[in-house]
Amino acid sequence: MPISKSHLRTTKRHSGMIPHIKKKHKQFQWQRKHLLGLRELSREEITYILDTAEGFEQISTRSVKKAPPLRGKVVVNLFFEDSTRTRSSFTLAAHRLSADTLDFSKESSSVSKGETLLDTAKNLEAMGIDIVVIRHTAAGAAKLLSKNINACVVNAGDGFCEHPTQGLLDIYTIRQMRGSLEGLRVAIVGDIAHSRVARSDMWGMTKLGAQVTFVAPPTLLPPDVRQLPVQISYCLDEVVEKVDVINMLRIQFERLGGNAFPSIREYSRYFGLTVERLSRAKDNVIVMHPGPINRGVEIDSKVADGPNSVILQQVKNGLAVRMAVLFLVNQAAAQT
Ligand code: CP
After folding, report:
1. pLDDT value at position 26?
2. What CATH homologous superfamily does 5-162+317-334 map to?
Protein backbone atom coordinates (compact mmCIF):
# COMPACT_ATOMS: atom_id res chain seq x y z
CA MET A 1 0.00 0.00 0.00
CA PRO A 2 1.56 3.37 -1.01
CA ILE A 3 2.15 5.69 1.92
CA SER A 4 2.06 9.44 1.54
CA LYS A 5 4.79 11.64 3.02
CA SER A 6 2.20 13.43 5.15
CA HIS A 7 1.03 10.09 6.56
CA LEU A 8 4.58 9.21 7.54
CA ARG A 9 5.04 12.65 9.10
CA THR A 10 1.82 12.19 11.09
CA THR A 11 2.87 8.75 12.33
CA LYS A 12 6.34 9.99 13.28
CA ARG A 13 4.99 13.05 15.05
CA HIS A 14 2.59 10.99 17.15
CA SER A 15 5.18 8.35 18.01
CA GLY A 16 6.77 11.29 19.78
CA MET A 17 3.68 11.53 22.02
CA ILE A 18 5.07 8.63 24.00
CA PRO A 19 8.80 9.37 24.48
CA HIS A 20 9.06 7.33 27.73
CA ILE A 21 8.37 4.21 25.67
CA LYS A 22 11.24 4.88 23.29
CA LYS A 23 13.54 5.34 26.29
CA LYS A 24 12.37 2.11 27.93
CA HIS A 25 12.40 0.03 24.73
CA LYS A 26 15.48 1.43 22.96
CA GLN A 27 16.13 -1.49 20.60
CA PHE A 28 12.51 -2.43 20.05
CA GLN A 29 10.19 -1.57 17.19
CA TRP A 30 6.57 -2.74 17.03
CA GLN A 31 6.08 -4.63 13.76
CA ARG A 32 2.72 -6.40 13.88
CA LYS A 33 -0.10 -4.97 11.79
CA HIS A 34 -2.50 -7.55 13.27
CA LEU A 35 -3.23 -8.43 16.89
CA LEU A 36 -4.54 -12.00 16.83
CA GLY A 37 -3.66 -13.33 20.27
CA LEU A 38 -1.29 -13.16 23.21
CA ARG A 39 0.04 -16.66 22.59
CA GLU A 40 2.15 -15.40 19.71
CA LEU A 41 3.43 -12.26 21.45
CA SER A 42 6.74 -12.03 23.29
CA ARG A 43 7.06 -10.65 26.81
CA GLU A 44 8.57 -7.48 25.36
CA GLU A 45 5.73 -7.02 22.85
CA ILE A 46 3.16 -7.31 25.64
CA THR A 47 5.10 -4.87 27.82
CA TYR A 48 5.39 -2.49 24.87
CA ILE A 49 1.60 -2.42 24.40
CA LEU A 50 1.06 -1.82 28.13
CA ASP A 51 3.62 1.00 28.20
CA THR A 52 2.03 2.54 25.11
CA ALA A 53 -1.38 2.34 26.81
CA GLU A 54 0.02 4.22 29.82
CA GLY A 55 0.96 7.02 27.46
CA PHE A 56 -2.60 7.19 26.15
CA GLU A 57 -4.36 7.18 29.52
CA GLN A 58 -4.19 10.93 29.97
CA ILE A 59 -6.10 11.64 26.74
CA SER A 60 -9.28 10.41 28.46
CA THR A 61 -8.76 12.90 31.30
CA ARG A 62 -8.71 15.96 29.01
CA SER A 63 -11.75 18.20 28.55
CA VAL A 64 -11.44 17.52 24.82
CA LYS A 65 -10.85 13.78 24.78
CA LYS A 66 -9.14 13.53 21.40
CA ALA A 67 -5.72 13.17 19.81
CA PRO A 68 -4.99 13.00 16.09
CA PRO A 69 -2.88 9.86 15.36
CA LEU A 70 -5.61 8.02 13.41
CA ARG A 71 -7.09 11.06 11.69
CA GLY A 72 -8.37 10.03 8.25
CA LYS A 73 -8.38 6.32 9.15
CA VAL A 74 -11.46 4.10 9.25
CA VAL A 75 -11.94 1.44 11.92
CA VAL A 76 -14.68 -1.17 11.36
CA ASN A 77 -16.24 -3.02 14.27
CA LEU A 78 -17.15 -6.34 12.64
CA PHE A 79 -19.09 -8.07 15.40
CA PHE A 80 -20.74 -11.45 14.80
CA GLU A 81 -21.49 -11.82 18.52
CA ASP A 82 -23.03 -9.46 21.05
CA SER A 83 -20.84 -7.18 23.11
CA THR A 84 -21.21 -4.23 25.46
CA ARG A 85 -17.69 -3.51 26.76
CA THR A 86 -15.40 -4.52 23.90
CA ARG A 87 -17.40 -2.96 21.12
CA SER A 88 -18.03 0.35 22.93
CA SER A 89 -14.44 0.48 24.08
CA PHE A 90 -13.02 -0.01 20.57
CA THR A 91 -15.42 2.61 19.19
CA LEU A 92 -14.43 5.14 21.84
CA ALA A 93 -10.74 4.28 21.46
CA ALA A 94 -10.94 4.89 17.71
CA HIS A 95 -12.79 8.18 18.22
CA ARG A 96 -10.27 9.36 20.84
CA LEU A 97 -7.56 8.83 18.23
CA SER A 98 -9.67 10.74 15.65
CA ALA A 99 -10.51 7.76 13.42
CA ASP A 100 -13.88 7.33 11.76
CA THR A 101 -15.77 4.20 12.74
CA LEU A 102 -18.20 1.89 11.01
CA ASP A 103 -20.35 -0.41 13.12
CA PHE A 104 -21.29 -3.73 11.56
CA SER A 105 -23.61 -6.25 13.16
CA LYS A 106 -24.48 -9.67 11.85
CA GLU A 107 -28.23 -9.25 12.36
CA SER A 108 -28.67 -6.16 10.20
CA SER A 109 -26.21 -7.15 7.44
CA SER A 110 -26.27 -9.37 4.36
CA VAL A 111 -24.72 -12.18 6.41
CA SER A 112 -28.36 -13.04 7.12
CA LYS A 113 -28.69 -13.66 3.35
CA GLY A 114 -25.75 -16.05 3.33
CA GLU A 115 -22.79 -13.74 2.59
CA THR A 116 -19.51 -15.19 3.89
CA LEU A 117 -17.10 -13.60 6.36
CA LEU A 118 -14.46 -13.04 3.68
CA ASP A 119 -16.91 -11.58 1.17
CA THR A 120 -18.26 -9.29 3.87
CA ALA A 121 -14.75 -8.11 4.83
CA LYS A 122 -13.61 -7.69 1.21
CA ASN A 123 -16.68 -5.61 0.37
CA LEU A 124 -16.06 -3.36 3.37
CA GLU A 125 -12.39 -3.14 2.38
CA ALA A 126 -13.40 -1.97 -1.08
CA MET A 127 -14.86 1.11 0.64
CA GLY A 128 -11.44 2.00 2.02
CA ILE A 129 -11.17 0.75 5.58
CA ASP A 130 -7.90 0.58 7.53
CA ILE A 131 -8.49 -1.53 10.65
CA VAL A 132 -10.99 -4.35 11.20
CA VAL A 133 -11.88 -5.25 14.78
CA ILE A 134 -13.55 -8.64 14.60
CA ARG A 135 -15.50 -10.75 17.09
CA HIS A 136 -16.65 -14.10 15.79
CA THR A 137 -17.99 -17.41 17.11
CA ALA A 138 -15.33 -19.36 15.18
CA ALA A 139 -11.82 -19.81 16.58
CA GLY A 140 -9.35 -18.60 13.96
CA ALA A 141 -11.71 -16.12 12.29
CA ALA A 142 -9.40 -13.16 12.93
CA LYS A 143 -6.40 -15.10 11.60
CA LEU A 144 -8.31 -16.09 8.47
CA LEU A 145 -9.21 -12.47 7.86
CA SER A 146 -5.62 -11.30 8.39
CA LYS A 147 -4.45 -13.62 5.61
CA ASN A 148 -7.07 -12.45 3.13
CA ILE A 149 -7.39 -8.68 3.44
CA ASN A 150 -4.90 -5.81 3.43
CA ALA A 151 -6.38 -3.94 6.38
CA CYS A 152 -5.04 -4.43 9.91
CA VAL A 153 -6.98 -7.03 11.90
CA VAL A 154 -7.58 -6.92 15.65
CA ASN A 155 -9.14 -9.93 17.36
CA ALA A 156 -11.98 -8.91 19.70
CA GLY A 157 -12.72 -12.54 20.61
CA ASP A 158 -12.73 -15.68 18.43
CA GLY A 159 -14.66 -18.69 19.64
CA PHE A 160 -13.00 -20.26 22.68
CA CYS A 161 -9.54 -19.27 21.43
CA GLU A 162 -8.43 -15.76 22.45
CA HIS A 163 -9.63 -12.32 23.50
CA PRO A 164 -6.27 -10.54 23.48
CA THR A 165 -7.36 -7.03 24.40
CA GLN A 166 -9.25 -8.39 27.43
CA GLY A 167 -6.09 -10.28 28.42
CA LEU A 168 -4.04 -7.10 27.99
CA LEU A 169 -6.40 -4.94 30.02
CA ASP A 170 -6.48 -7.55 32.79
CA ILE A 171 -2.67 -7.60 32.87
CA TYR A 172 -2.55 -3.80 32.69
CA THR A 173 -4.89 -3.56 35.70
CA ILE A 174 -2.83 -5.98 37.80
CA ARG A 175 0.39 -4.18 36.85
CA GLN A 176 -1.22 -0.86 37.79
CA MET A 177 -2.12 -2.24 41.24
CA ARG A 178 1.06 -4.19 41.96
CA GLY A 179 3.76 -2.75 39.70
CA SER A 180 4.57 -6.12 38.15
CA LEU A 181 3.14 -9.61 37.60
CA GLU A 182 6.43 -11.30 38.44
CA GLY A 183 5.85 -13.95 41.12
CA LEU A 184 2.14 -13.21 41.57
CA ARG A 185 -0.30 -16.09 41.98
CA VAL A 186 -3.45 -15.74 39.89
CA ALA A 187 -6.55 -17.94 40.15
CA ILE A 188 -8.84 -17.96 37.12
CA VAL A 189 -12.11 -19.48 38.30
CA GLY A 190 -15.17 -20.88 36.58
CA ASP A 191 -16.15 -21.72 33.05
CA ILE A 192 -12.61 -22.07 31.64
CA ALA A 193 -13.74 -24.46 28.89
CA HIS A 194 -15.69 -21.75 27.08
CA SER A 195 -13.46 -18.83 27.98
CA ARG A 196 -11.21 -17.11 25.46
CA VAL A 197 -10.43 -14.65 28.25
CA ALA A 198 -8.94 -17.44 30.36
CA ARG A 199 -6.65 -18.40 27.47
CA SER A 200 -5.46 -14.88 26.69
CA ASP A 201 -4.93 -14.20 30.42
CA MET A 202 -2.99 -17.42 30.77
CA TRP A 203 -0.64 -16.74 27.82
CA GLY A 204 -0.05 -13.12 28.76
CA MET A 205 0.20 -13.48 32.55
CA THR A 206 2.59 -16.44 32.47
CA LYS A 207 4.85 -14.61 29.99
CA LEU A 208 5.03 -11.75 32.49
CA GLY A 209 6.03 -14.08 35.33
CA ALA A 210 2.76 -14.88 37.09
CA GLN A 211 1.78 -18.38 38.21
CA VAL A 212 -1.73 -19.16 36.95
CA THR A 213 -4.13 -21.72 38.43
CA PHE A 214 -7.33 -22.72 36.65
CA VAL A 215 -10.03 -23.50 39.22
CA ALA A 216 -13.14 -25.29 37.97
CA PRO A 217 -15.09 -28.53 38.08
CA PRO A 218 -13.57 -31.04 35.61
CA THR A 219 -16.57 -30.53 33.29
CA LEU A 220 -15.68 -26.84 32.87
CA LEU A 221 -12.01 -27.36 31.99
CA PRO A 222 -10.87 -27.58 28.35
CA PRO A 223 -9.80 -31.02 27.04
CA ASP A 224 -6.19 -29.83 26.47
CA VAL A 225 -5.78 -28.34 29.96
CA ARG A 226 -2.85 -30.61 30.88
CA GLN A 227 -0.82 -29.22 27.98
CA LEU A 228 -1.28 -25.62 29.13
CA PRO A 229 1.19 -23.70 31.34
CA VAL A 230 -1.13 -23.66 34.37
CA GLN A 231 -1.80 -25.46 37.61
CA ILE A 232 -5.22 -27.05 38.02
CA SER A 233 -7.49 -27.09 41.06
CA TYR A 234 -10.99 -28.46 41.47
CA CYS A 235 -11.55 -26.62 44.75
CA LEU A 236 -11.73 -22.84 45.19
CA ASP A 237 -11.42 -23.19 48.98
CA GLU A 238 -7.99 -24.76 48.49
CA VAL A 239 -6.57 -21.79 46.59
CA VAL A 240 -8.50 -18.77 47.87
CA GLU A 241 -6.10 -18.09 50.76
CA LYS A 242 -2.95 -18.38 48.68
CA VAL A 243 -3.51 -16.16 45.65
CA ASP A 244 -2.90 -12.48 44.91
CA VAL A 245 -5.54 -12.20 42.18
CA ILE A 246 -8.88 -13.95 41.71
CA ASN A 247 -10.37 -13.60 38.24
CA MET A 248 -13.94 -14.87 38.22
CA LEU A 249 -15.41 -15.99 34.90
CA ARG A 250 -18.99 -15.95 33.81
CA ILE A 251 -20.78 -19.24 33.32
CA GLN A 252 -21.49 -19.08 29.59
CA PHE A 253 -24.96 -20.59 29.73
CA GLU A 254 -25.46 -19.88 26.01
CA ARG A 255 -22.54 -22.21 25.14
CA LEU A 256 -23.10 -24.97 27.71
CA GLY A 257 -24.25 -28.19 26.08
CA GLY A 258 -25.84 -30.66 28.50
CA ASN A 259 -25.33 -30.48 32.23
CA ALA A 260 -21.86 -29.33 33.24
CA PHE A 261 -22.92 -29.22 36.90
CA PRO A 262 -25.97 -30.46 38.82
CA SER A 263 -27.50 -27.04 39.58
CA ILE A 264 -26.60 -23.35 39.61
CA ARG A 265 -27.05 -23.38 43.37
CA GLU A 266 -24.54 -26.17 43.77
CA TYR A 267 -22.08 -24.50 41.39
CA SER A 268 -22.29 -21.26 43.38
CA ARG A 269 -21.78 -23.11 46.63
CA TYR A 270 -18.47 -24.61 45.53
CA PHE A 271 -17.14 -22.12 42.97
CA GLY A 272 -18.88 -18.80 43.70
CA LEU A 273 -16.91 -15.94 45.23
CA THR A 274 -18.97 -15.10 48.31
CA VAL A 275 -18.26 -12.61 51.06
CA GLU A 276 -17.44 -15.48 53.41
CA ARG A 277 -14.99 -17.05 50.96
CA LEU A 278 -13.34 -13.73 50.23
CA SER A 279 -12.86 -13.16 53.98
CA ARG A 280 -10.35 -16.03 53.90
CA ALA A 281 -8.30 -14.46 51.08
CA LYS A 282 -5.35 -12.09 51.50
CA ASP A 283 -6.49 -8.62 52.62
CA ASN A 284 -5.21 -7.01 49.43
CA VAL A 285 -6.38 -9.71 47.02
CA ILE A 286 -7.46 -8.26 43.67
CA VAL A 287 -10.92 -9.41 42.50
CA MET A 288 -11.50 -9.28 38.75
CA HIS A 289 -14.23 -10.23 36.31
CA PRO A 290 -14.23 -9.58 32.55
CA GLY A 291 -18.00 -9.06 32.48
CA PRO A 292 -20.83 -9.51 31.90
CA ILE A 293 -21.45 -10.71 35.46
CA ASN A 294 -24.00 -13.31 36.55
CA ARG A 295 -24.55 -11.75 39.97
CA GLY A 296 -25.21 -14.38 42.61
CA VAL A 297 -23.91 -17.18 40.40
CA GLU A 298 -20.11 -16.89 40.10
CA ILE A 299 -19.79 -13.76 42.24
CA ASP A 300 -21.88 -12.12 44.96
CA SER A 301 -22.93 -8.52 44.42
CA LYS A 302 -21.22 -7.47 47.67
CA VAL A 303 -17.94 -8.86 46.32
CA ALA A 304 -18.35 -7.50 42.80
CA ASP A 305 -19.05 -4.03 44.20
CA GLY A 306 -16.75 -4.35 47.21
CA PRO A 307 -13.37 -2.82 48.08
CA ASN A 308 -11.24 -5.59 46.54
CA SER A 309 -13.02 -5.42 43.20
CA VAL A 310 -11.32 -3.72 40.23
CA ILE A 311 -14.03 -4.69 37.74
CA LEU A 312 -14.86 -1.16 36.61
CA GLN A 313 -11.16 -0.23 36.64
CA GLN A 314 -10.65 -3.07 34.15
CA VAL A 315 -13.27 -1.51 31.88
CA LYS A 316 -11.66 1.93 32.23
CA ASN A 317 -8.21 0.55 31.43
CA GLY A 318 -9.58 -1.26 28.39
CA LEU A 319 -9.96 2.06 26.63
CA ALA A 320 -6.28 3.02 26.96
CA VAL A 321 -5.21 -0.51 26.00
CA ARG A 322 -7.37 -0.48 22.87
CA MET A 323 -6.12 2.97 21.91
CA ALA A 324 -2.59 1.57 22.14
CA VAL A 325 -3.47 -1.46 20.02
CA LEU A 326 -5.16 0.58 17.29
CA PHE A 327 -2.26 3.03 17.29
CA LEU A 328 0.42 0.32 17.06
CA VAL A 329 -1.17 -1.81 14.34
CA ASN A 330 -1.75 1.30 12.26
CA GLN A 331 1.86 2.37 12.80
CA ALA A 332 3.11 -1.07 11.70
CA ALA A 333 0.91 -0.93 8.60
CA ALA A 334 2.35 2.48 7.71
CA GLN A 335 5.87 1.04 7.87
CA THR A 336 5.25 -1.95 5.59
N1 CP B 1 -15.46 -8.65 28.50
C2 CP B 1 -16.14 -8.65 27.34
O3 CP B 1 -15.65 -9.12 26.30
O4 CP B 1 -17.38 -8.07 27.43
P5 CP B 1 -18.37 -7.87 26.18
O6 CP B 1 -18.81 -9.24 25.73
O7 CP B 1 -19.49 -7.04 26.70
O8 CP B 1 -17.59 -7.20 25.09
Report:
1. 82
2. Aspartate/ornithine carbamoyltransferase (3.40.50.1370)
